[in-house]
Specification:
Blueprint (H helix, E strand, L loop, with lengths): L8 E3 L8 H4 L4 H4 L6 E7 L4 H11 L7 E7 L4 E7 L2 H4 L3 H5 L5 E7 L14 E5 L2 E11 L2 H10 L10 H10 L5 H11 L2 E8 L4 E5 L8 E5 L2 E5 L3 H4 L4 E5 L5 E5 L2 E5 L12 H6 L5 E2 L2 E2 H16 L5 E4 L5 H11 L7 E3 L12 H5 L2 H4 E3 L1 H4 L3 E6 L6 H12 L4 E6 L21 H4 L2 H8 L3 E4 L2 H7 L15 H4 L7 H4 L16
Parallel strand pairs: 1-4, 17-20, 20-21, 21-22
Antiparallel strand pairs: 2-5, 2-11, 3-4, 3-5, 6-7, 7-8, 8-9, 9-13, 10-11, 10-12, 13-14, 15-16, 18-19
Helix pairs in contact: 6-7, 7-8, 11-12, 11-19
GO molecular function, one term: amidophosphoribosyltransferase activity
EC number: 2.4.2.14
Keywords: Glutamine amidotransferase, Glycosyltransferase, Magnesium, Metal-binding, Purine biosynthesis, Transferase
């Protein structure tokens, strides 16, 4: 009898989707924003599993715009579609969904922080193991991924991708345990860092969250079928019911026998990523019981308490600064105006412009609304500041449109340290706040005044009395340098490249 997982179909058509070169075309605005690695989605037992997964990935598109993939299982074979580009570029077509039969599926949207944007890195990754097929979708980043990778290669492993997620597949494969879930947990015990995993076998849908709960993962239900996904907005789009957050360190399994929960790690104080509230999560999501929209408004209100100056209008930097600007306006009593209009129809695959156009590239996505700002003292509200290149151009745009004064406020503290958990931030040398004083930053971006939300103010806006250095409630290491896990790869004396590249290929 043929093994039910034997005929795994991984469709690797190199001609589908935009090229890596096209994906890399971006103006300075794109290069000065925070990016997170990905979003995950999985459903068990539904006859329209692939179509529902595609809809869920649409809702998670903000978490990754470089690639998308779905793996389904139809009772005898796995089927895979993985493509560069947006979810809608591939998964809005009926013929693609028809190639993904089965009542269970996992999906992934990707922004690459580990591994280049090439088709062999697009998830879910699939491997044929001794116990059968295994597809893995991973949100986060392993802080010992390179160290484990080198150890695995030394012992004969052959890596097909350059992403740290492949390490997890190899660790499951080499475990000597008899039951799959025990092998899976063995692998989790070896990895460090941040992860929310949704995995698929020929019998099970498995979710797992790192012991600190750095990356989010929620449980929902649609027509009696369990769903695991990164954010509640993916449940809303398909009309599913939110049940609960997967707990930090929890491994949850769904199969024909129902639900099984494992807690293989010693209890640790949760440290969810604060940037989910600042930037990553969609405003209509609920993260750990808190409305993201309401938290961002609270950040803005706290900014008004801490650093208000006499102004005529509050102007958000769209779109991420809008909720904080609403909160600032409501608290200060200063009118809210859309002083910047965003063009939503300029994508990352815009035709390569001339150098002259690239130098004014910020106007491709943002235009000044002169009627709202001319002759007025304005305060710009944005979520965060990374390199400062975008802020500088927007301040200049406001002055060119006739603003009398331009003040700048950030609804988060200064970013002083790099991230190793899935946020694509430069090293300290590329972070403006890590290399310049507040006054120097103000001069660089050209504002009349500049202020950031304080760290204690950020915690107060979250409903906490302030930050407790002995027990911080969130992963706030980009502001404080207090990393919640070991950084094994960063402490190795052997040179560890940030990105491995074993093969150049057309994709």
């Amino acid at each position: 009898m043929r093994h039910p997982d034997q005929d795994a179909q991984l469709d690797l058509d190199p001609n589908a989707g935009p090229s890596p070169a096209a994906l890399e075309v971006q103006d300075d605005l794109e290069g000065d924003t925070l990016r997170e690695e990905c979003g995950v989605f999985g459903i068990y037992g539904h006859p329209d599993a692939a179509a529902i997964t595609a809809l869920g990935l649409h809702a998670l598109q903000h978490r990754g715009q470089e690639a998308a993939g779905i793996v389904s299982y139809d009772g005898s074979r796995f089927h895979s579609e993985r493509r560069l580009g947006l979810v809608g570029d591939t998964f809005s077509r009926r013929e693609v969904i028809d190639r993904l039969p089965g009542n269970m599926a996992v999906g992934h949207v990707r922004y690459s922080t580990t591994g280049a944007t090439i088709l062999r890195n697009v998830q879910p990754l699939f491997a044929e193991l001794n116990a059968g097929g295994l597809a893995v979708a991973h949100n986060g980043n392993l802080t010992n991924g390179l160290t484990l990778r080198r150890e695995l290669v030394r012992h004969g492993a052959m890596m097909q991708s350059t992403t740290d997620t492949e390490v997890i597949l190899h660790l499951v494969a080499r475990s000597r345990r008899s039951r799959f879930i025990e092998r899976y947990i063995d692998a989790l015990r070896e990895i460090e860092g941040a992860y929310a995993l949704v995995s698929l076998t020929n019998k099970k849908l498995v979710g797992a969250r790192d012991p600190r709960g750095i990356r989010p993962l929620v449980l929902g239900e649609l027509d009696g079928c369990p769903i695991l996904t990164s954010e509640t907005c993916a449940l809303d789009i398909i009309g599913a019911r939110f049940i609960r957050d997967i707990e930090p360190g929890e491994v949850i399994v769904f199969d024909e026998n129902g639900q099984d929960i494992h807690k293989p790690f010693p209890p640790m104080a949760p440290r969810p990523c604060i940037f989910e509230y600042i930037y990553f999560a969609r405003p209509d999501s609920i993260v750990h019981g808190r409305s993201v929209y309401e938290v961002r408004k609270a950040f803005g209100a706290q900014l008004a308490r801490e650093s208000h100056v006499p102004i005529d209008v509050v102007v958000p930097v769209p779109d991420s600064g809008v909720p904080a600007a609403v909160g600032y306006s409501q608290h200060s009593g200063v009118p809210f105006e859309l002083g910047i209009i965003r063009n939503h129809y300029v994508g990352r695959t815009f035709i390569q412009p001339t150098q002259a156009i690239r130098e004014s590239g910020v106007r491709m996505k943002h235009s000044a609304n002169r009627a709202a700002i001319e002759g007025k003292r304005i305060i710009l509200i944005d979520d965060s500041l990374v390199r400062g290149t975008t802020s500088k151009k927007i301040v200049r745009m406001m002055r060119d449109a006739g603003a009398k004064e331009v003040h700048f406020r950030l609804a988060s503290p200064p970013i002083l340290y790099p991230d190793y958990y899935g946020i694509d931030l430069p090293d300290r040398g590329g972070l403006l706040a890590a290399t310049h004083s507040l006054e120097e930053m103000r001069e660089i971006i050209g504002a009349d005044s500049l202020a950031f939300l304080s760290i204690d103010g950020m915690y107060r806006a979250m409903g906490e009395p302030g930050r407790d250095p002995a027990n911080p409630k969130f992963s706030d290491h980009c502001f404080t340098g207090a990393y919640p896990t070991h950084l094994t790869d960063q402490t190795q004396t052997e040179q560890q490249p940030r990105q491995l590249s074993l093969l150049a290929e057309a994709s």
